[in-house]
Amino acid sequence: MTANGIxxxxxxxxxxxxxxxxxxxxxxxxxxxxxxxxxxGRFGPPLLQPFYDVLKLLEKEPVTVNRGxxxxxxxxxxxxxxxxxxxxxxxxxLLVIFTLTTASVFLVVAAYSSNSxxxxxxxxxxxxxxxxxxxxxxxxxxxxxxxxxxxxxxSDIIGSPAVGVxxxxxxxxxxxxxxxxxxxxxxxxxxxxxxxxxxLVKGLTTEFSGKTLAILEISHWxxxxxxxxxxxxxxANGTPLMAVVGVAVxxxxxxxxxxxxxxxxxxxxQFALNSSWIVALVFGATNMMVVYxxxxxxxGVQ
Amino acid sequence: xxxxAFLVLFPFVVALALLLIRNDRGRGVLVTAGSIVIAAASIYxxxxxxxxxxxxxxxxxxxxxxxxxxxxxxxxxxxALAVVIFVLGVRHRQPLACVLAxxxxxxxxxxxxxxxxxxxxxxxxxxDQLSIIMALIIGIIGTLICVYALGYMKDFQRHSxxxxxxxPWFFFLLFLFLxxxxxxxxxxxxxxxxxxxxITTLCSFFLIGFxxxxxxxxxxxxxxxxxxxxxxxFVGAIIYLxxxxxxxxxxxxxxxxxxxxYKGYFTIPLALLAFAGITKAAQMPFNSWLLGAMVAxxxxxxxxxxxxxxxxxxxxxxxxxxAIGGTWTGTMTTLVGGITFLMASFAAVSQxxxxxxxxxxxxANLGLIVACAGTGLEGAVWAATMLIIFxxxxxSLLFLCVGTAEHNIGSRDIEDMDGLFGRMPRLAxxxxxxxSAMYLAPFGMLLSKWAALESLILASxxxxxxxxxxxxxxxxxxxxxxLGKMAAIVGGQENIQGRVHxxxxxxxxxxxxxxxxxxxxxxxxxxxxxxxxxxxAFAASGSGDVLEKTLSNDNMVIMxxxxxxxxxxxxxxxxxxxxxxxxIYLSGAGLDDGRSYTGxxxxxxxxxxxxxxxxxxxxxxxxxxxxxxxxxxVLAFILAMVLGGVIxx
Lengths: 302, 649
Description:
The complex is a heterodimer. By secondary structure, chain A is mainly α.
């Protein structure tokens, strides 16, 4: 493909992400609720229920607790969209990760800004979760960098002939582990949960209502699609076959997370931090070291 | 060359004048005018030398009769200062300070009178892009802090009831500090550089001990002892270089030492100089002096952390970088920096005192700079230089914000800054800017950290990569919780920001503008300023294309666009809402002020929110202990091998 062709392709996938991600994300959320219901022996809501919920939220009376909060939540959505757009444009993976952090910090600040005890506890827990998963995410980026001809560029990682997961099994397991935190699934749904049984008050989102809550929901859909895109990177090698495998694994991973969600109760925050860091060190760092020295001494990768 | 001599001498003259002026107005005029002149002269120096690359100046030739006199004058001052330290050490029962002063200065004087006499210094002064960057930091940020100090010290004096007014001494030290910093960044002659190096040590000693409380005196001596220890390393390096090679010019030494075939000869002096840099840059195990420096008035901290002192330490290590890359000294430097970054970031989590959070963050960021410099790779040095610039601008802003908050709310504890957004909205907005600029994309610090991470991966040391990864994750946490606190909107607050002095607003506003401008111009800063320097510095040892090894232009431009968006968004949309504002939820018993609820017995109960300090994980003492032990082991092991001659290169 020519440079121009790549640019056009990148622009198309960005547009596709911006337009389609909320639908895909919402649909995934609907599937999640159906599967969860079946696991709990219920019939479950219609597949499109998440969309109905969001539409209903948009019609609620517009109230807020202060003049700043809604602005921060809107910024969270904007930067979440930028994160995914940069990802699907094939930019640097580190750039994408850091932009995601900024989006998440906007959410935390939104919760803090209300000065509500419930929201603030949720915000602090959200920060804790970020601290817990961040090392593993960065290690995953470094791992993908090492096996893709030493580039953080997502288009390079996808185009590289090496199938990441072959060299990075430990890092992949570690990434799936922290994906539970990122998708806000039990046992790590500490800062907020979609399940009514998990908390008395709604954690981080306590003071969000109506349109603000709808915006937050949509930004989660954007985020979830991007996260599954990250999983895809471990399988992509530029061939259609692996692309199909990658998408299939993304769906399996999502199903797995729903399953984990349903068989666990919420754990204490200590467990979230300890376990994620231990997994990052044992699976992530070890795998990274092995790949690192393998590539330095010239066998294995590249 | 005139402009360089001016930059070193003029702040000194201002300092002397400030020592004599005792009234507020005169001091105000002189400090403001002096600062404007210094900043303008720095910009002028930058403009006139920037495109030319490195330029060396022969002081002997230019000031023929004077040059010898300068040398003797410096020696006389050094002896006088050593006597002062010795006397103070005896008076305050600080044997270590006495011993170090008594060891260092006689050694230096003996060397200068014997070996040093015969060594011809072709050019004692020089200027290159790195010294220009440093000069701009000193000249703009340093002077802004001095202007801020005018307002701050008025309050300070008012708060210290009955104490004699020692502000002339304070402002004398500030400007002397600036002069000495210019001396360090422009000296090519190591003996000169050492002279200015010691002046900064002394200045910080007096500034830290300024309040003369027991704690201040104790901490000032700790800083003095640690920095004199580094100074001893500096003397050792000078003597070694002079005796063995008859070489005392930094430019020449680095030119030789950067070439692979000569690297081995310079192992010992470079290790000693790196050690001196590590002490001054407050790396573990020496970080405690910078933490102790918190007892001084806040402008001192701002100055020590952003534009002077610790920046002298990283400046020296950065200069050495092409020569120590790939040697054991380089490994030592990288490891010490990496461990310091991790452990200092951990320790910052457990702090609720705003100044201590800032201090640990400084130590951590300097650690990252030092770690990058130790690798001797172009990309890493590029990242380190960027970190120096952005850290200087942002950290000075944050310190000064905390200083102003402290004088107006009576505490520097983050927990007491509850509702600052209501009480001092502009100050809170400035702090939010500063905090975000310290750790969030798309601001310069984060961009530089990203580059540091990328280049450290190349440095064939996965251990360092892990240290940086875990350190950055924790950084996210401790800045995040402070940022949240600043953004919290608490009902029923009285706006008290009218009490802030105009000099403080002027400096704070200028620094906020500088942060924004620096972040917006990141690509230009890289292409026009930092990359040319790297090209020059690595001409001998580098492997060619510097641009290949830094962040790609695309990424930098994307970030700049994002900076523009993130500046515009709040300006256009923040606070504009037509929704009904309702009180927060407090389990159905909340009262309308948003700060209290109806408790048992129908009593109005105010709730308090506290942040999370995770003492069980990140207790300060334990983090320090681990860091100190680990870095001591690294330093002792590698220095012993290098000095003992086990390792030749």
